[in-house]
Amino acid sequence: MEPFTMNYLAEYQTFESKNELNDAIDIHIERNNFALNETERSIFLMLSRYAVKFPGVAHLKSDTIAKAIGKTSRTIRRAIAKLIELGMIERLEFMRSVAGGNGANIYRIVHPSASTRTLPENTTTATAEATKKATEPITLKNNKPSNTTDTAKSQLSTESDVIKRGLLAKIPTDIAETLEIFFDASAIHRLYGVMLRAKASINRLLTFESDEYEYNKALMSVLSAWKRGKVRSLDAVIYEATKRTARRLWLIDRGRATFNL
Known about the structure:
By secondary structure, this protein is mainly alpha-helical. Helix content is 58%, strand content 5%. The protein is built from 10 helices and 3 strands.
């Protein structure tokens, strides 16, 4: 009998490299910072550690996770469901090909640009509450402003939010969500302009919408390195990353056009 291996996980992996996986983990943690409790965060990081050999995919039993985290299996299942709901992971049932029956679950780290999670209007999650507290003016119980300074600050905050939402609405969805995590309206406007100029330097007919996944993946890679202090000039590195992506996609399209002639 051949020794048991986990090479079958290769067909399920969601990332091309460990670095790409690490970038995705950083984005997920940043994006869902206020929505995760300690247990959910620990489980996500544990799955991430087990998902290194085949980037993005791990094969674990709930009992194994429970023992490592020090929680009950019921708590683990509830936390896993939360991570799935947040669009951070997905769970695939695994059927043993030899012995039959269900085995441990296969967990995959979802690529951040593929996550379609949206919060309902009446949500009561920590993320929504944190956002609400950050944007609401501080008022007394009689609803009158505490002072002129507070009122002015709240007005500026509201105006900034309106500008930011209007700007993000004009940017392709995945790229907008990535930029929104890290930057205010002014920085988003500047950096998206950098991306537009980089793309146009290759071919003005190229669009982000046609290959948004690829452009957003390049952007997330740069931002992850920037957060780790490995990028000195963010604008310059985003420009080069976008330009390389645009050139690669343009050459692919040219090859297809030549082949079809």
